[in-house]
């Protein structure tokens, strides 16, 4: 009986692999993006999806399973990763019924919807082993992974949708060189079990790598080692020489996986990027240099010294848009990782590997009316301090601080910027520009050089034409549904 089951499984796997080799089912590897939504100025999801498609971004990683976002992604052709929040891990780990409900509500309903959402991954947790969590989520991860996997099997989706656990790079460490990489002692057993699961299901080990953070946190870190143009301080590891931090970090993980018996496990990069402001090393030039260097490096298929010719299976840039409500506990740069500003406007030229170095701006953004709140030039500003504190406590003033694009616009410019950012947050309520008579509304754009005085987004106004109302082309929708039908048919064969 066992032999017959094994034979059937091998036949099914072979048929499934053959199906993936059909011309219409082949999907080329591409650089994707993280789409976070920690912002008070959220663009309508259909506008964001249009932005993805206009720039040829074929993969997107979400941190949850937002209803509006997933509806907008239906029929788009964009490959999607949805996420289980860390706070939900305990409940899912404790209950198969809870896992079934999560998959039904956040996965099955969208895959089966008209046009379908092309969900490829479920991220169970987000950096749940992070040292700063002090083990808070550690015991829940593997049980939650197991229960979600069983729920996918029940839903006939396990052969198509893979489970990953995005890990911070602090899950492993090395004394000095990549070949000495090992997992943290408190994680060795968990990582061995996780790697075994990933190997069985054909999913990659997912890690977030941030050379920017290494450079930001250490004055001894060689700056040129963080980029991809070669370094005057390479790391020599026996016969291998490392000229950039990304490769060194990646191979440290390869070494750690090898030491637990899974050195050939595919690796995906869940987050990697460079902010555009908020620190002396964060600006438009360094962000462009890092991201362009990374993209060129990955798409060259050069690989790393320990994996020559084998690049990561997926790479997700962090991030698509700025998020002005993120915590700035790590630094002011946390709100400025976007390739685009909060409203989908390009920050700098970038070639995503599609032949063009020009990113396209978002279209049909539903802005509030073009008006701004600035300081009243006829008023005495002696008592402005409390008003500035209020504005910058409620709204995002990080661009005014050292390392920000608006840091050098003068005292009155700073006050006007703070007044305006609060005014826009309050949806241009006239009372929010009063500040005891110190503020005034203007219809002339007060932006200064690279310091842009924003106009907020009107989240109460419906777009005249929403991309969510635009059906996918008959060809793309037909191929997607045919793909799903074939995959599900092969999956069901094993249960007959």
Automatic annotation (TrEMBL):
Q: Which Pfam families match?
A: Glyco_hydro_17 (PF00332), X8 (PF07983)
Q: Which domain of life is it from?
A: Eukaryota
Query: Kind of enzyme, top EC level?
Result: hydrolase
Report the main location listed first in the record: membrane
Keyword Signal present in the record's keywords: the answer is yes
Q: Which first-to-last residue range defines the signal peptide?
A: 1-29
Q: Which residues belong to any copy of the X8 domain?
A: 371-453
Entry's localization field: Cell membrane
UniProt keyword annotations, A-Z: Cell membrane, Disulfide bond, Glycoprotein, Glycosidase, GPI-anchor, Hydrolase, Lipoprotein, Membrane, Plant defense, Signal
Name the membrane topology term: Lipid-anchor; GPI-anchor
EC number assigned by the record: 3.2.1.39
One GO CC term on file: side of membrane
Return one GO MF term.
Answer: glucan endo-1,3-beta-D-glucosidase activity
> Which reactions is this enzyme annotated as catalysing?
Hydrolysis of (1->3)-beta-D-glucosidic linkages in (1->3)-beta-D-glucans
Keyword Transport included in the entry's annotation: no
For the biological process aspect of GO, one term held by this record is: carbohydrate metabolic process
- Tell me which family the UniProt entry assigns to this protein: Belongs to the glycosyl hydrolase 17 family.
Name under which the protein is recorded:
glucan endo-1,3-beta-D-glucosidase
Could you tell me which species this protein originates from? Paspalum notatum var. saurae
